C-alpha cells in the first residue's frame, strides 16, 4: 500500500532579526524554523512510513509590514493523497518541481521578537493582531502557531477579552493579559510541566510529562478565569481549580507551566498552538542572544554569567526541542487528537500545579532585587 501524503504550506512571519552571530550562521528565524520542521517531518515519516508530511514555507517580513494575502489562504481541509513509488533522483526532482506559491497557505507561524506586544510605539504590531484575528475567525482550516512573542501576540489577539463565539461559552471568559513578568526574566533550559490534556492530544509525546526547552523572555501571558452568575455578575471561579495553573475558556488549554511562568503555551484543538519557550533555539542561539541582549541593555556581568550558566551547553539531543518540533508538525498536519476529547478530559490539571502560597512567595522573592528589563521578548 502506498503511503498517505500531506503537503502543508506554512507562512512564517518574521517579526525580528536574529542577533548578528546567529544570523551569520543560521539565517533568519524563518529559515531556522524551516530546517527544524522539515527535519521533524522526516523523523515522523521514518517512525510511521505509511504517513508522509511534506513541508513548504514562505517567509514574510512582518516587521516591515509584509503579510500574506487572504486570497492565498486555504479554505478547505488539507488534502491527503497517495505517494507515488518514485525513489532517489525521481523523488528529489518531484519535490523540487513543486512551487510553494502554487499551494494554498495552510498555517501561519509567528516567530519570536525582542518586542512587547503591548508596546504602543510599535506600528507593525496592530496589523499582525488584526491579521491573526481575521485568520482565526474567517479561515477555520488555517492553523496558527506562535513562539514566545508569537505566543504572546496570539493570546492578546484571541483571548484578551474576546467577544463570545460559538466555540467559547457566553457564561465564561478569560481575563487574559500580556504583561511584564512580575517574577523577572526567565532564561535558560527549563522543564515545562505539561498539562495532561495536552499530552493526551498528542500521542507522539508518549505520555511524557515535561519538555525541556530554552527560554529567554521578560513578558508573560497571565489569566484569571471569570464566570458570569445568573444575576449577571462576574465572579472569580472557586473550588476545585483554586490554586492550580491558570485556566482558559473552553476549548482553550494551557500547555503547561514552569515555576516562574504558569502559562507556557496555548492550545485550541485543531486551530491554535503556541509555546512560550523556543524549540528553535539550541544553546548556541540562546547564549548568543542572551549575551547580545546584555550588551544592548546594559545588564550586569554577574547577571549575564548567571543566565549563560542556566542556558548550558546542550544541543538538540540534550533537550526536548526535537520532540516539541514533532508536536508542531503533527498539529500543523491536523493530526492532533485534542478535538476528539471532552472538555473535562482536555482541561485536566498537570500533575504538578502551582499553589497560591508558592506562587505568591515566588512573586515576592522575584520582586526583591529585580532589575527592570525595558525591552522584553
How would you describe this protein?
With about 375 residues, the protein is of the alpha/beta class. The chain has a single domain (about 5-160, about 170-365), classed as Class I glutamine amidotransferase (GATase) domain (Rossmann fold, 3-Layer(aba) Sandwich). It is built from 11 helices and 14 strands. The chain has helices spanning about 20-25, 30-45, 90-95, 125-140, 150-160, 195-200, 285-295, 300-310, 320-330, 345, 355-365; strands at about 5-15, 50-60, 80, 105-110, 145, 170-180, 185-195, 210-215, 220-230, 235, 255, 255, 265-270, 270-275. The strands form 3 sheets. Strands 1, 2, 3, 4, 5, 11, 13 and 14 form an 8-stranded mixed beta sheet that branches. It has a 3-stranded antiparallel beta sheet with strand order 6-9-10, covered by helices on one side. Helix 2 crosses helix 9 (about 320-330) and helix 7 packs antiparallel against helix 8. The chain is globular and about 60 Å long. Mean pLDDT is about 85; it is low at about 225-245, about 340-345 and about 350-375. One of its GO terms (cellular component) is nucleus. This is Class I glutamine amidotransferase-like protein. InterPro entries: ChyE-like (IPR044992), Class_I_gatase-like (IPR029062).
Amino acid at each position: 500500500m502506498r503511503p498517505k501524503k500531506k503537503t502543508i504550506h506554512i507562512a512564517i512571519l518574521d517579526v525580528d532579526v536574529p542577533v548578528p552571530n546567529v544570523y551569520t550562521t543560521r539565517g533568519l528565524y524563518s529559515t531556522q524554523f524551516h530546517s527544524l520542521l522539515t527535519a521533524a517531518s522526516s523523523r515522523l515519516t521514518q517512525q510511521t512510513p505509511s504517513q508522509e508530511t511534506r513541508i513548504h514555507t514562505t517567509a514574510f517580513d512582518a516587521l516591515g509590514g509584509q503579510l500574506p494575502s487572504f486570497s492565498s489562504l486555504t479554505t478547505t481541509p488539507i488534502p491527503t493523497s497517495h505517494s507515488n513509488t518514485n525513489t532517489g533522483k525521481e523523488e528529489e526532482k518531484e519535490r523540487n518541481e513543486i512551487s510553494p506559491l502554487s499551494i494554498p497557505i495552510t498555517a501561519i507561524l509567528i516567530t519570536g521578537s525582542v518586542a512587547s506586544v503591548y508596546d504602543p510605539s510599535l506600528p507593525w504590531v496592530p496589523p499582525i493582531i488584526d491579521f491573526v484575528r481575521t485568520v482565526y475567525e474567517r479561515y477555520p482550516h488555517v492553523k496558527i502557531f506562535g513562539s514566545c512573542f508569537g505566543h504572546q501576540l496570539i493570546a492578546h489577539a484571541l483571548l484578551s477579552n474576546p467577544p463570545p463565539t460559538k466555540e467559547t461559552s457566553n457564561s465564561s471568559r478569560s481575563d487574559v493579559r500580556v504583561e511584564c513578568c512580575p517574577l523577572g526574566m526567565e532564561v535558560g533550559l527549563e522543564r515545562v510541566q505539561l498539562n495532561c490534556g495536552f499530552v493526551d492530544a498528542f500521542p507522539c509525546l508518549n505520555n511524557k510529562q515535561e519538555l525541556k526547552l530554552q527560554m529567554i523572555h521578560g513578558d508573560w501571558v497571565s489569566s484569571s478565569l471569570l464566570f458570569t452568575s445568573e444575576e449577571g455578575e462576574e465572579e472569580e471561579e472557586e473550588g476545585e481549580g483554586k490554586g492550580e495553573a491558570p485556566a482558559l475558556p473552553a476549548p482553550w488549554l494551557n500547555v503547561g507551566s514552569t515555576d516562574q511562568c504558569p502559562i507556557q503555551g496555548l492550545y485550541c484543538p485543531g486551530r491554535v498552538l503556541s509555546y512560550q519557550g523556543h524549540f528553535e533555539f539550541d544553546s548556541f542561539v540562546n547564549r548568543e542572544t542572551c549575551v547580545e541582549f546584555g550588551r544592548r541593555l546594559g545588564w550586569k556581568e554577574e547577571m549575564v554569567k548567571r543566565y549563560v550558566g542556566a542556558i548550558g551547553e546542550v544541543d538538540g539531543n540534550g533537550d526536548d526541542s526535537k520532540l516539541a518540533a514533532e508536536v508542531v508538525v503533527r498539529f500543523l498536519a491536523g493530526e492532533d487528537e485534542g478535538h476528539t476529547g471532552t472538555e473535562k478530559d482536555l482541561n485536566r490539571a498537570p500533575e504538578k500545579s502551582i499553589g497560591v502560597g508558592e506562587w505568591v512567595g515566588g512573586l515576592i522573592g522575584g520582586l526583591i532585587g529585580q532589575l527592570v528589563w525595558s525591552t522584553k521578548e
